[in-house]
Automatic annotation (TrEMBL):
Gene Ontology molecular function: any one: peptidoglycan glycosyltransferase activity
SUPFAM superfamilies: beta-lactamase/transpeptidase-like, Lysozyme-like
Protein name: Monofunctional biosynthetic peptidoglycan transglycosylase
Species, as recorded: Bacillus canaveralius
Catalytic activity: [GlcNAc-(1->4)-Mur2Ac(oyl-L-Ala-gamma-D-Glu-L-Lys-D-Ala-D-Ala)](n)-di-trans,octa-cis-undecaprenyl diphosphate + beta-D-GlcNAc-(1->4)-Mur2Ac(oyl-L-Ala-gamma-D-Glu-L-Lys-D-Ala-D-Ala)-di-trans,octa-cis-undecaprenyl diphosphate = [GlcNAc-(1->4)-Mur2Ac(oyl-L-Ala-gamma-D-Glu-L-Lys-D-Ala-D-Ala)](n+1)-di-trans,octa-cis-undecaprenyl diphosphate + di-trans,octa-cis-undecaprenyl diphosphate + H(+); Preferential cleavage: (Ac)2-L-Lys-D-Ala-|-D-Ala. Also transpeptidation of peptidyl-alanyl moieties that are N-acyl substituents of D-alanine
Length: 689
């Protein structure tokens, strides 16, 4: 008997020893396995937390202009900008032990397994916030063992590489709240019309209950079920010490005001401008299409919403609905190149082709200020004279003769000044000037003004026969308006990623391209387009819109058979307008020939309505004198018309006009100086009739 007992004891010891050995091996294996998993997770590093988010476009005052999304509204906000009540409500109902566990709540897992076993079905979840976040970030919501294993692995990676704050912030910004709203900011805006940081306790509790089943607990699906779950969450917050019972009862009883409208609805405002911004993100910042569309970027643009609305309204009101003519408009701040308004066509829905930046059209006489700036640089002055008459230019053998024509075939049949030639747009004077300086030199000057389209070095280039873009012409005139400083069209001031980090910021160039004195002289010459003192054999080209002007502008119109232009500026704003047909059909109707000028002046007047009236301030190195605008000589008291004209110092005329000196016994034959006048800046409106 004792022998049998001894054998049984030794056999038991053997089994115990085997069990212990196997257990130790199993424990060692588990330690190695867990260590390996943790090590591998650490080696892989932090998994990316990026999720598709809406990219927002802002105007220059911070107003949201537009949004890129694929039906999903997503806006990332830092944890500190989320209502503490919403954070507490979410943790309380979703994962009470979030701040204590390391990704897995084992007690909750065991409890859920027991509940499922008793019910013989899946009745209780045990996923932590970290697990849910891992699932939202990296996995499909399929119920397979592979997905569960990967979810556990990603959960480990998140916990190892990120803080609890990062995980909670990411979870709240990615969880689905129904109705296309992903994340707390989109949900807060949709349900309550306010940011996530402004939610009341009651609103926060209601919102925290939706992710469990957006189709069930959304107040728009069932207000009854939504408020029932709200009360469950408020009671849970009381149990967890986040709220006093009385505060929870008050929150449950507080009325709820629902909006049911997303913050940023798709807008058609500045559709052409928004296209240009996206193109700049791609070509200048080298961002790919997915990042632009779903990267959660905040793109701060240069657009002035008020001026954009004025531009769109002006085009709509002034161009007949029955006309098929198209339009391109660009308004820029000449000081920094910021594009403030853009219209690329009559209707973006019918045609997304942006005529303001894509179309290449002949600029006509709007090229002349660039030609005459070059002439000033080569020794011409506003008082330089040449004869205006029908002229045929003959060239070397092999080149055809060229006969430019003035509008309506009108000519002075006499000498005229360069200032008057510009004001009345005399084509013969322009071609003579161009040929005197050499045809290739204008090509280089046009490049200096930032125009990159191909130019032909032919006599007709002086009349704008080589194509340009509207935006390039607005930029070229900006160089004159700002005193010769280099600018380029700017659409984007700053770009932030989804975390608010600045990834791009525009820096303005300080380079000077033109001579400031000559830029001002040219600008002042361009005010003559609106000054009837420069009327001659024909009226100044801006005559028809002078009545609509309340401030001083410099500008130039231009036309070809198929194109009509008006470009001009005040010190604060440059605007270029082109009108014409897409297929190059001739503009024949009188009304259609006036669209460019009328759109330009009405836009400028309204856009600057609340801006101070500013004069063009002369820089050092210029001299202003009164001249007879007919011959460009210094005016005397006897001259019937005198016009203040600016010259680069040392180039001003020295001869007095003698054409109007009256004969008589009591009159001197010596020319008399004009009487002292008020300073030029008090006479800036002399040009107004």
């Amino acid at each position: 008997m004792e022998i049998m007992t001894d054998r049984r004891f030794r056999k038991t010891i053997k089994y115990v020893r085997a069990f212990l050995i196997i257990s130790l091996i199993g424990i060692a294996f588990m330690v190695v396995l867990i260590t390996g998993i943790l090590g591998y997770a650490k080696i892989l590093g932090a998994p990316p937390l990026a999720v598709p988010q809406s990219t927002l476009y802002y105007t220059d005052d911070g107003t949201v202009l537009g949004e890129s999304n694929s039906g999903q509204k997503r806006y990332w906000v830092p944890l500190e900008n989320i209502s503490p009540s919403l954070i507490e409500a979410t943790v309380s109902i979703e994962d009470k032990s979030f701040h204590e566990h390391h990704g897995f709540d084992y007690k909750r897992i065991a409890g859920a397994a027991l509940a499922d076993l008793k019910a013989l079905s899946k009745v209780q979840g045990a996923s932590t916030i970290t697990q849910q976040y891992a699932r939202n970030l990296f996995l499909a919501h399929e119920k397979t063992w592979k997905r569960k294993i990967l979810e556990a692995f990603y959960t480990i990676r998140l916990e190892i590489n990120y803080s609890k704050k990062d995980i909670l912030e990411g979870y709240l910004n990615t969880i689905y709240y129904g109705n296309g709203a992903y994340g707390v900011e989109a949900a807060s805006q949709f349900y309550f019309g306010k940011s996530a940081g402004e939610l009341s306790v009651g609103e926060a509790a209601l919102l925290a209950g939706i992710p469990k089943g957006p189709g069930v607990y959304s107040p728009f699906a069932s207000m009854e079920k939504a408020t029932e779950r709200q009360k469950v969450i408020l009671n849970s917050m009381v149990e967890d010490g986040y709220l006093k019972k009385q505060a929870a009862e008050q929150a449950a009883a507080a009325p709820l005001t629902l909006t049911g409208q997303h913050l940023h609805l798709q807008t058609e405002t500045a559709a052409y401008f928004q296209d240009s911004v996206r193109n700049a993100l791609k070509t200048e910042l080298k961002l790919d299409d997915r990042t632009i569309a779903l990267g959660g970027l905040k793109v701060y643009t240069t657009l002035n919403l008020k001026q954009q609305e004025i531009a769109e309204k002006t085009v709509k009101n002034l161009i007949s609905k029955d006309s098929e003519i198209q339009l391109g408009l660009v308004a820029m701040n000449p000081g920094n190149g910021h594009v403030k308004a853009m219209v690329g066509g009559r209707d973006y829905r019918q045609s997304s082709f942006n005529r303001a930046v894509q179309a290449i059209r002949q600029p006509g006489s709007t090229i002349k200020p660039l030609l005459y700036y070059q002439a000033l640089d080569e020794g011409f002055t506003p008082s330089s004279t040449m004869r205006s008459e029908k002229t045929t230019f003959q060239f070397e053998e092999g080149m055809a003769d060229y006969t430019p024509h003035n509008y309506n075939n009108l000519y002075a049949e006499d000498d005229i000044t360069m200032a008057q030639a510009l004001a009345v747009s005399d084509n013969v004077f322009a071609v003579k000037t161009h040929l005197l300086m050499g045809e290739k030199s204008l090509v280089e000057t046009i490049k200096d003004f930032g125009i990159s389209t191909k130019m032909s070095d032919v006599p007709s280039l002086a009349l704008g026969t080589s194509g340009v873009r509207v935006i390039d012409m607005a930029n070229a005139y900006s160089l004159l308006a700002n005193g010769g400083k280099k600018v380029a069209p700017v659409f984007i001031e700053r770009v932030e990623n989804h975390r608010g980090e600045v990834i791009y910021e525009y820096k303005n160039s300080k380079e000077t391209i033109l001579r400031p004195d000559l830029a001002f002289v040219m600008t002042h010459m361009m005010t003559g387009v609106f000054d009837r003192k420069l009327n001659g054999y024909t009226t100044v080209t801006g005559d028809t819109i002078i009545k609509d002007m309340t401030r001083l502008y410099a500008g130039k119109s231009g036309s070809t058979d198929t194109d009509s232009w008006m470009i001009g500026f005040a010190p604060q704003l440059v605007t270029a307008v082109w009108t014409g047909y897409d297929k190059g059909k001739p503009i024949e109707l009188t009304a259609e020939k006036s669209y460019a000028k009328n759109v330009w002046v009405h836009f400028m007047e309204q856009a600057l309505e609340n801006e101070p009236i500013k004069a063009f301030k002369p820089p050092k190195g210029v001299v202003g004198v009164y001249v007879n605008p007919v011959n460009g000589k210094l005016a005397t008291e006897d001259c019937p018309i005198k016009r203040l004209t600016y010259f680069a110092a040392g180039t001003e005329p020295v001869d007095y006009c003698t054409e109007h000196i009256e004969d008589g016994n009591n009159r001197s034959t010596e020319p008399k100086h004009p009487k002292a006048k008020a300073p030029w800046y008090k006479k800036i409106f002399e040009w107004i009739p």
